[in-house]
Structure formats: structure tokens, C-alpha cells
Amino acid sequence: MIRKTRLFTPGPTPLLPAAQFAMAAADIHHRTPEFRALYTKVLRDLKTFVGTKNDVILLASSGTGAMEASVSNLTSPGDRVLVLSAGKFGERWVSLAKAFGCDVDVVSAPYGQTFDLEEVRRALKIETRAVFMQATETSTGVRHCVSGVAEVLKQSGKDAVLVVDAITGLGTTHINMDGWGVDVLIGGSQKAVMIPPGLSYLAVSDRAWELMEISLNPRYYFDLRKERKSAAKGESAYTPAVALIAALGAALDYIAAQADGDLAAGRAKLVENAETCAAMTRAAVEALGLKLFAPEAPSAAATAVLPPPGMDSGVFVKELKNRFAAVITNGQGEMKGQIFRIAHLGFFDYMDTIALVGALEQVASSLKLPGFAFGKALVAAQNVFASRAPDEAARHNCPCGRPIGHSAMAGVSLPAR
Ligand SMILES: *Cc1c(COP(=O)(O)O)cnc(C)c1O
């Protein structure tokens, strides 16, 4: 059979065709009214996508650039900071904070698990300047409780800012930045927004903007204050990644179009979509007799799966690639060989998920997994979809034809008491 290459990787993720066309057509100079119109619209839409009233800053870098920018802009050498770390991306916060001279406290959880909020509470010190965490730890497939950490911070009465790497959390997890009191929320282009790598973005609270004024760490290209000033005029401080910005505009339009032009509702649909794909995948791999690596706090961004005891997880990666051109990822770093990861964030749908489960059955069959029979994983995934889909549809199509969320009492007069 011929094979169509399909990415099931947690970044880069599959590209949205409309975004690819927008990139190809983005032959505009960045100091023109045409670009200013595009940039202003994309920044405004990004705010809606993130779900915040805060300014959003776009950077020409991969996600790590925005992580670095939040460390360099918010800290001074010698500052005490707290990192919540449970995987490769948590460890990246530790390295970054150390690189900028911070005194780093760490609350960690074993790979595959999330932190104990009580431990977070105890680790907060009066002088803690900032807390850094992930919304979803892509290396282990875990979802962390951002609202819980924000609550602990609020209750503590300490004024550390909360910085959340939501690079795979945005578009897979409901996040209420302003309501919870998150100070910096970071996203990246090659994840849920379905475009190529090369852009990162940060939503920044008033408190964080104030802190930047007294922070002493050096910054130049990633000086967020400079970018904010330029953005207010519809421009970026330096030459922007014009083509990627055009792609991002098209992707945000697509997400809005999923909910009749309402971008916030489109984002909620994107989250539900990832959650459904993730739930189908979890049920399928368990039906194959495989164990989830993060059964207690699984993220909808990616599902991490343990191979059968004694087997290298790379076998699944290789078989799916060689036989079906389906690209999944191995574990990162020392997790290589121990887990494989299947992504759900962004441009994945029911059809993609069912196809991958079908291919996984073929691989499980050729590997002669104990107790294997064709159909078990597919049935499990189908049942998950069938039990979720009507709810999802109901949320958007009220049987009365009015938009969902309308008042049930509209036009109905209540009997007098
Ligand atoms: C992808 C990712 C990043 C960013 O990595 P880059 O390679 O710099 O884009 C950061 N954090 C998490 C959780 C990620 O999944």
C-alpha cells in the first residue's frame, strides 16, 4: 500500500492547509499599513484565543525563547525562584533560571505524576520572586493543576508572580488566566495552533509588567517592554516572521470558524476535541493491554504509553513509521525506550484518531502482544467517542435552534406566586 505521512507528534503538529496557503501568499513588508493591519488583528485574536485581557507579545523564536524571555525580564541575579518540575520541560525552567543567576528552589514529582500542592505551599518563601511551571508536561503526558497552584499562591499572601509554560496546554486545557491570577502564560506556534515552528507568544499581566521595570537581568532581543511599545503601533521591534504571522491569522480564523466565528467558543471546541482524541486513545491502548504512563493526571496534549515489560518503546515508533508513515514520538532524554507518545493537540480529529488506533492494532498484532485480538482497541475508542459526541454536539446545537447558553426562560412568563 502507499503510505501518507501523518504527524502524531506533540510539536510540530500537523499543518492546517489554510495556514500553509496564507504563508505562501505573505509577500508583504513589515513597515506597511498591510502588515500593521495583519499584526494588530493577530495580536487581538491571540488575546481571545488565550482568553485574557492582558497584552499578548509575539516573538520570533521557538517556545523556549518565550520561556527565556520570562526569566530574563522578570528576575534579577540572586533572586529566589521556585520551579515545579516533573519532566524535561520542568527541568528546562531550572536550567534557564540558573543561567540567569537565580537561586532555584524545586518542587518535583516523579515522571508520570504531578505535584503535591501542600509541598508547593511549603516551598513558597517570603522572598520567592517567581514560580515557574508547565500546564502540561509534554515529556511525560501529565497535566498539572495550574488553578490549584494559583490558589496556593493567592492564599499564601506572598507576591511571587506565576509563570506558566502552556505551550502544549493552550488549546488542550481550559485555562482561566485572569480569573486564576496567572501572570505570564506562554504558547508556541508548532503546537495547538497548527502552524510550523518559529513563533512563541506570551500573555503578560500588569503585575508582571511592573516587575519588569525593576528586574536587572540583561535582555535585548527579548526585551518584552520594547515589543509591547512596538505592538501598540501595530509593529514588532525587529523584522517579524511575517509568513508565520499570516499563518497564525489563518489558523485563528479556522478555530473561530469551528464555532460560527466565535474564537473563544472555538478554543473551547479545540480543547474538547483534544480531550476526546486523548480519551479515545487512552481507552484503546488499555484495551491492547498496555499501561498508561500518567494514568492519574493525563493531559489531553499527548498520551504517554508504556511498552510491554522488556520491550523497547522505540519498536512502536519504528513500526508505525515504517509500515504506516505515522510519526509518533519516543520518550525524551533518559525516557527514550521507556515510553512512546501520541499527540492530540491541534489539527487532529476523529478520523485521525481512529486511523492511528487501527494502525496500533496492526502493530500489536505483529508484535504478538498477549491477549491481542483485532477490534478490541477500536471498539474501546468507538465507545468513548459515542458516549462523548452527543454531549459535545448538544453544547453547540440546542434543539430549539437558538445558540447554546440562551436563557431557558426567554419568552416564558412565570406563573405569579
Ligand atoms: C514544545 C514545548 C516547549 C518548547 O520547545 P521549543 O522546542 O523551544 O519550541 C516548551 N514546553 C513544552 C511543555 C513543550 O511541549
At CATH's second level, what is the architecture of the largest domain? 3-Layer(aba) Sandwich
Spell out the CATH superfamily of the largest domain. Answer: Type I PLP-dependent aspartate aminotransferase-like (Major domain)
Q: How many structural domains can be distinguished in the coordinates?
A: 2
Q: Please tell me what the overall shape is.
A: globular
Following the backbone from N to C, one meets helices and strands in this order, namely EHHEHEHEHEEEHEHEEHHHHEEHEEEHH
Chain oligomer state: single chain
Instruction: Give the uncertain stretches in residue-range form.
Output: 393-417
Distance between the termini: 72 Å
Give the number of helices: 14
- Strand residue percentage: 5-15%
Largest sheet: 7 strands, mixed
Explain the layout of strands and helices.
Blueprint: E1 6-7, H1 17-24, H2 33-50, E2 55-59, H3 63-74, E3 80-85, H4 88-99, E4 103-108, H5 117-123, E5 128-134, E6 136-137, E7 142-143, H6 146-156, E8 161-165, H7 177-180, E9 184-188, E10 200-204, H8 206-214, H9 224-232, H10 242-257, H11 263-287, E11 291-292, E12 302-306, H12 314-324, E13 326-327, E14 329-330, E15 340-343, H13 350-366, H14 376-396
Parallel strand pairs: 1-13, 3-4, 3-5, 5-8, 8-9
Antiparallel strand pairs: 2-10, 6-7, 9-10, 11-12, 12-15, 14-15
Helix pairs in contact: 1-10, 2-10, 2-11, 5-6, 10-11, 11-13, 11-14, 13-14
The structure holds pyridoxal-5'-phosphate (PLP).
How would you describe what is shown here?
The chain has 417 residues and is of the alpha/beta class. It folds into two domains: 6-11 and 263-395, Alpha-Beta Complex (Aspartate Aminotransferase, domain 1); 17-257, Type I PLP-dependent aspartate aminotransferase-like (Major domain) (Aspartate Aminotransferase, domain 2, 3-Layer(aba) Sandwich), CATH 3.40.640. 43% of the residues lie in helices and 14% in strands. The chain has helices spanning 17-24, 33-50, 63-74, 88-99, 117-123, 146-156, 177-180, 206-214, 224-232, 242-257, 263-287, 314-324, 350-366, 376-396, and strands spanning 6-7, 55-59, 80-85, 103-108, 128-134, 136-137, 142-143, 161-165, 184-188, 200-204, 291-292, 302-306, 326-327, 329-330, 340-343. The strands form four sheets. It has a seven-stranded mixed sheet, sandwiched between helices. Helix 2 (33-50) crosses helix 11 and helix 11 (263-287) runs parallel beside helix 13. The radius of gyration is 22 Å and the shape is globular. The model is unreliable at 393-417 (pLDDT under 50). Bound molecules: pyridoxal-5'-phosphate. Pyridoxal-5'-phosphate (PLP) is lined by residues 10-11, 62-64, 89, 134, 138, 165, 167-168, 188. Pyridoxal-5'-phosphate binds at residues 10-11, 62-64, 89, 134, 138, 165, 167-168, 188.
